[in-house]
């Protein structure tokens, strides 16, 4: 469903290779966690997957389509929840959701049904007429999540999605992720919350200094480490 083949990216301002020859695959029906220390290359990888950055080398495929050759078709099949939402500050919640609905060409009926359903779920109905700039971090996270769910993406891509969410909302988001995978779609997300990754993910990749140093199910990761314990132990050992 999502496939990276030998993807690399350097930033022009530095000699650092932010992402160095990265390959992995996220299968249909899978929740895939992307872990790594600060500055390891997670956000850079996510931005290339959603087309915000162009890889220097390598290929990215969604449902078998090469992103570079079929960028519009691919963008219709994915959704991205970034870790920073300041860009939408001057819209009200409902203006933003309608903007997202327009961008994805979602009909008024389906849009309004989904918006109501998710506003109810994330308890955001009362604030939807307010400017996003007045929202708390968690409320911004929720409105962006709702906007990203409107197109029912084949691959749902999230950068640190649990930061700022209260426990109830975090629980609901995890349920949404699982439901999507049960329906044969994929979820790919970065996180520093190892307990969540351990419980939620079908497979996990760990990136360090731009390179994938481990990838697989929890069981497979245990085989690749000496500690063979929790994901926290494995992560600390592998990223030393
Ligand atoms: N716009 C940029 N210009 C120059 N260097 C950058 C830029 N963005 C990221 N980098 C560098 O690229 C490397 C990877 O950064 P990236 O943001 O992808 O890491 P990350 O794993 O998402 O980190 P974190 O967990 O701290 O969010 C780091 O060395 C970072 O300093």
Automatic annotation (TrEMBL):
Protein's UniProt keywords contain Transport? yes
Which keywords does the record carry? ATP-binding, Nucleotide-binding, Transport
A Gene Ontology MF term for this entry?
ATP binding
Which branch of life, at top level?
A: Bacteria
This protein's record includes keyword Transmembrane: no
The species this protein belongs to is: Alkaliphilus flagellatus
Q: According to its UniProt record, what is one Pfam family this protein matches? A: ABC_tran
Q: What is this protein called?
A: ABC transporter ATP-binding protein
Q: Which residues form the ABC transporter domain?
A: 2-234
CDD domains registered for this protein in UniProt = ABC_DR_subfamily_A
């Amino acid at each position: 469903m999502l496939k990276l083949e030998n993807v690399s990216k350097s930033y022009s301002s530095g000699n650092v290779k932010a992402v160095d020859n990265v390959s992995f695959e996220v299968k249909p029906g899978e929740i895939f966690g992307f872990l790594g220390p600060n500055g390891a290359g997670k956000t850079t990888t996510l931005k290339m997957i959603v087309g915000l950055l162009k890889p220097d080398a390598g290929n990215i495929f969604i449902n078998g389509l090469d992103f570079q050759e079929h960028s519009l078709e691919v963008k219709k099949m994915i959704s991205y929840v970034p870790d920073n939402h300041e860009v939408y500050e001057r819209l009200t919640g409902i203006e933003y959701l309608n903007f997202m609905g327009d961008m994805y060409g979602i009909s008024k009926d389906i849009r309004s049904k989904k918006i109501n359903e998710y506003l109810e779920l994330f308890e955001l109905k009362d604030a939807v007429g307010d400017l996003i700039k007045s929202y708390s971090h968690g409320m911004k996270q929720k409105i962006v999540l709702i906007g990203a769910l409107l197109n029912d993406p084949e691959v749902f891509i999230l950068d640190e999605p649990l930061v700022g969410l209260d426990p109830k909302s975090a629980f609901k988001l995890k349920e949404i992720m699982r439901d999507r995978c049960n329906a044969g779609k994929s979820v790919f997300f970065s996180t520093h919350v190892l307990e969540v990754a351990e419980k939620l993910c079908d497979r996990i990749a760990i990136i360090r200094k731009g390179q994938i140093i481990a990838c697989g199910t929890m069981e497979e990761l245990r085989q690749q480490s000496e500690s063979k314990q929790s994901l926290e132990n494995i992560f600390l050992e592998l990223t030393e």
